[in-house]
Amino acid sequence: MSSTQAKTQAQAKAQGPLKDVGAFIFDVFGTVVDWRTNVVKEVTELGTKYGVGPEVANWAQFAQEWRNAYMESVLSVGSGTATSASYNIDIVHRQASIPQIHCLLDKLVAKPEWAKHTSAWTEEDKRELTLAWHRLGGWPDSVQGLTELKKDKIIVSLSNGNMSLLIDMARHAKLPWDAVFSTELFDTFKPNAKAYLETARYISVPPNKCVMVAAHIWDLRAAAKLGMTTIYVPRPDEDSGVKFGDIKPKSQGGEVDYVVDSFEGIVKLVRGG
């Protein structure tokens, strides 16, 4: 039996409210993978290599500033308020392709509060640290939940990460995608509508039969405008400016279709139970 036939049979048995959708599209950073734990670990290891351990420098704060600058950079491009010289996140993580963004790695390590701790870092150190984003691990529920969901539905990623990063990450974290989509393919970043629409087009599933899954409300708002069903998965300290538990489903007066506390909850929305 082919995988397509198996999924058709599984869909026939599905009894949940999402039994008739065609595909699930997942954000990756923060939604599927835990970037903070992994990046803080590698930054701390690099600092310690040069005698600057976590008791001296707040490497968790360093990682957060790096992430914040990345988010500001890509969101400003995706929303149309800026342009980018590159849609390759390995490049964006290293340097500010948008002039007003001052905290990506090359500029972050030059800030006075960090330069005193990072001045010994070599170009090879910084190159290798940038690749930490390729080595992220999934949240505890991610692989099992995706594996189960894949038995019933198409599952793909849609990330602002570049293609090589997403492929490396999928291999490292054993993420069982049917396909990997990067906004790099579309010369934009989310939340530009083009990213969502082109992903739906390539998998031949109309937007109103697609489900967008994310831990960031801005991502789901963009998908909802295009007719996609939305599932919010709250992750610890992930959705900037949003308090944990604040996002509610429409059934409780909120703006997303569903809120689940793990990927197992998504499987139940398809299968019932």
Detailed description of the structure:
The structure is a single chain. By secondary structure, this protein is an alpha/beta fold. The chain folds into two domains: 3-34 and 137-271, 3-Layer(aba) Sandwich (Rossmann fold); 35-134, no CATH class. The protein has twelve helices and six strands. The protein has helices at residues 3-13, 35-49, 59-78, 89-94, 105-108, 112-118, 123-130, 142-150, 163-173, 193-202, 217-224, 263-271, and strands spanning 23-26, 154-159, 179-182, 210-214, 229-232, 258-259. Strands 3-2-1-4-5-6 form a six-stranded parallel sheet, sandwiched between helices. Helix 2 (35-49) packs across helix 3. The longest helix has 20 residues, at 59-78. The protein is elongated, with a radius of gyration of 19 Å. Pfam families: Hydrolase. InterPro entries: HAD-like_sf, HAD-SF_hydro_IA, HAD_sf, PGP-like_dom2, S-2-haloacid_dehalogenase. One of its GO terms (molecular function) is phosphatase activity.
Name of the CATH homologous superfamily of the largest domain: HAD superfamily/HAD-like
Sheet with the most strands: spatial strand order: 3-2-1-4-5-6
CATH topology of the largest domain: Rossmann fold
Structural class of the secondary elements?
A: alpha/beta
| Rg on CA atoms, Å | 19 Å
- Going by CATH, the architecture of the largest domain would be 3-Layer(aba) Sandwich
Query: Gap between N and C termini, in Å?
Result: 27 Å
Shape: elongated
- Helical residue percent? 40-55%
SSE run:
HEHHHHHHHEHEHEHEEH
- The helix count comes to 12
**Total E-strand runs:** 6
Indicate the proportion of strand residues: 5-15%
Please, what is the average pLDDT? 89
Given as residue ranges, the uncertain stretches (5+ residues, pLDDT < 50) are: 93-103
Counted up, domains total 2
Just give the CATH class of the largest domain: Alpha Beta
Q: How does the major sheet shape up?
A: 6 strands, parallel
Keywords: Hydrolase
GO molecular function, one term: phosphatase activity
Protein name: Haloacid dehalogenase
Organism: Leucocoprinus leucothites
